[in-house]
Amino acid sequence: MMAKEKRKNKWLEWRFTLLFLILVSCKPAAEQNKITIFAAASLTEVIPAAVTSLTESFPETRFVYNFAGSSILARQIIAGATPDIFISANSDWMNELVKQKIIGQDEPLTFLSNQLVVVQQKSTNTTSQSLRDLQRSDIRFIAVGDPDHVPAGKYAKSALQQAGLWQTLSKKIVAGLDTRAALAFVESGEADVGIVYHTDAVVSRSVKLAFAFPDSLQPTIKYQIAALNKKDDRIKNLVEHLTNAKTSRQIYKNAGFILLSP
């Protein structure tokens, strides 16, 4: 089942990339007051909220968002998409942009972190209490972001390998395009449990937090931000606001993110 999901995900990733590039190429070139932000799916609520809190500093500016898995967004950029700002849920995909000379090595700023947790539907009677419980026969499918590409999935795979459980549990994995897709699998009942970010569990009304990964297995999760548009001073100012403004950082904290100093 995992191989089938991976083939489907890969096809969808490239389809989304192609569709996005077509849409971008069809837009008029005169939208001078537009700022486009590509951001990891787990930031879907907080980045628009942070931007809204800063609108007085950016009068007459229209913000356009593209939320998806960091891998999809990075590939779109490498393929020619031109957002003003990119926010990745790990450093791997930001490093890909460095390799492609799209951004400089010292440009990405690390400003947030997160934690891995296991979630189940609220209606579930039996609650898993540890990673070992995921081996139970009644847990048939475990939803995660694609372990080969999506930061949340890569973090989960690494932690399960460290725990000595990946070989056993990999047969149960249902791979999503991003962490929110993994969350949706649990919400819909297509997966018995999901491994997602703590902040994903907070925003869902349909799942409950079963347990967090133990501290010894928690990966070092790094959200990085970089300005791709170097010609517009507004972009530099916006990155500064998103990473350092008290209002922005309070929004992140309230949503369950761990604040880091950029």
Describe the 3D structure.
It is built from 10 helices and 11 strands. The chain has 262 residues and is an alpha/beta fold. It folds into 2 domains: 2-113 and 223-259, 3-Layer(aba) Sandwich (D-Maltodextrin-Binding Protein, domain 2), CATH 3.40.190.10; 116-217, 3-Layer(aba) Sandwich (D-Maltodextrin-Binding Protein, domain 2), CATH 3.40.190. Helix 2 (46-52) links the parallel strand 1 and strand 2 (62-68). Helix 2 packs antiparallel against helix 10. The longest helix is centred in the N-terminal third of the chain and has 25 residues, at 2-26. The radius of gyration is 19 Å and the shape is globular.
Architecture blueprint of SSEs:
Layout: H1 2-26, E1 34-40, H2 46-52, E2 62-68, H3 70-78, E3 85-88, H4 91-99, E4 109-113, E5 116-121, E6 142-145, H5 151-162, H6 166-169, E7 173-176, H7 179-188, E8 193-197, H8 198-203, E9 207-212, E10 223-227, H9 233-244, H10 246-254, E11 258-259
Parallel strand pairs: 1-2, 1-3, 6-7, 6-8
Antiparallel strand pairs: 3-10, 4-10, 4-11, 5-8, 5-9
Task: Name a few traits of the molecule.
single chain, D-Maltodextrin-Binding Protein, domain 2, alpha/beta, 262 residues, 2 domains, five-stranded mixed beta sheet, six-stranded mixed beta sheet
